[in-house]
Amino acid sequence: MGNQIQLSADEIISSIDAAVEQLARDICDKILEYNGKAPSAVFLVGGGSLVPRLEEYIANKLQIPLERVGLRKTSLIKELNIKDKRISGPEFITPIGIAITAHLNRQKDFLNVFVNDKSIKMFNSKSLNVADALILVGFNPRSLIGRRGLPVSFTLNDQVEIVKGEPGEPAKIFVNGAQSSLDKILANGDRIIIDPAVDGKSADVYIKNYSNLLKGKIIYVNNVEKSLSPTITVNRKPQTVDYKISDKDIIEVKTINTVEELLRAMEVDTEGILVEINNKSVEMSSYIGNGDHINWSYNSNALDKSFHQAHTKTIIITLNGEQLVIEQNKDSMMFLDIFNHIDIDVSRVKGINTLKLNGSNANYTDLIKNGDIIEISWER
């Protein structure tokens, strides 16, 4: 509006006095909050510290002598040479501080670090760590984690077995010679060394590792010492305990455990056999233990029966509409032989004898085969 108002200094100071006192109160509250108690001295900086009576109010609120509340002037900055004497009051402290900070940090926009002796420059936009440096140089993250070695999967006595490979070793990270981590915050000039991860070894497994299946036995068969060792086959081929197992192998480790298995291994016909273990009669399925005494012999009655069965031939025919089972010791059978296996009272039979073999007229000397159809009748 162009109006001019003239006030004296006392009038102006009086009008802002309440606000200055409130400002002092706020400043003192924060000092007490952060310091926990009144400090021994207070230094005021910035243009606002020149407000009249601010020092007095702060001293009163903190209950410290007025001489211990002072203005911080540029002359107290010993490292700074100010040629212009006008730049001396507390109002210049803040801009000078900003200028000094900018000067000290003018070289810190970038960090120069080394990754495995390769120098890189990193834009210092945040707290940079080892991981940031590795990304910048294109380090493969897979090289930080060691993979487990390959497993071996195979079948042992019809059971699937899986043996895992050894675990890998993670990469080792060093910063300036000390072991560190990916989260380590970097400083200018730091040297990072990465010892890559080491993959674990693939599984190495041998048949001899399964010692519980490889235990042999010493037994005595008819008073003769005999060693029973397991038989080993891999993919149906004989192998030894030193065989290194490959993936998908099919392994069988067989041990003689029963009487029947023993006699078969000895190629003994088990028909009509009497067996004792440690002087006690046993069955073919009986278990054989280490140190057992096994005695076996043939049963004569069983042998006779076996011989009879071995030399007896059975023929099944149909006679006059009924099935007839004939057992004989001869290699062949004639039509005439049938009369030895049927009951016919010849004294009561009258008429002409008619013989049929599979629907055709037959003679007494015709050979009879299994399944033949025979008809015998008499016509008056």
Short structural description:
The protein is α+β, with helices and mostly antiparallel strands.
Assembly annotation: single chain
Cα-atom Rg, whole angstroms?
57 Å
Number of domains in the coordinates? 4
Series of H and E elements = HEHEHEEHEEEEEEEEEEHEEEHEEEEE
Query: Which structural class should the secondary elements be placed in?
Result: alpha+beta
Shape: rod-shaped
Major sheet: 5 strands, mixed
Query: Which strand order does the major sheet show?
Result: 4-3-9-7-8
Q: Give the N-to-C terminal Cα separation.
A: 167 Å
* Average pLDDT metric: 86
User: What is the β-strand count?
Assistant: 22
Low-confidence stretches: none
Portion of residues in beta strands equals 25-35%
Helical percentage: 10-25%
- Number of alpha- plus pi-helical segments: 6
Describe the overall structure.
The chain is of the alpha+beta class and 380 residues long. It folds into four domains: 9-104, no CATH class; 110-195, Beta-grasp domain (Ubiquitin-like (UB roll)); 213-233 and 252-306, Ubiquitin-like (UB roll) (Roll); 312-379, Roll (Ubiquitin-like (UB roll)). It is built from six helices and 22 strands. The chain has helices at residues 9-35, 54-62, 93-104, 130-136, 259-265, 300-311, and strands spanning 42-44, 69-71, 110-115, 118-123, 152-156, 159-163, 172-175, 178-180, 191-195, 217-221, 224-228, 231-234, 237-238, 250-254, 273-277, 280-281, 293-298, 313-319, 322-328, 352-357, 360-361, 373-379. Strand 1, helix 2 (54-62) and strand 2 form a beta-alpha-beta unit. Helix 1 runs parallel beside helix 2 (54-62). The radius of gyration is 57 Å and the shape is rod-shaped.
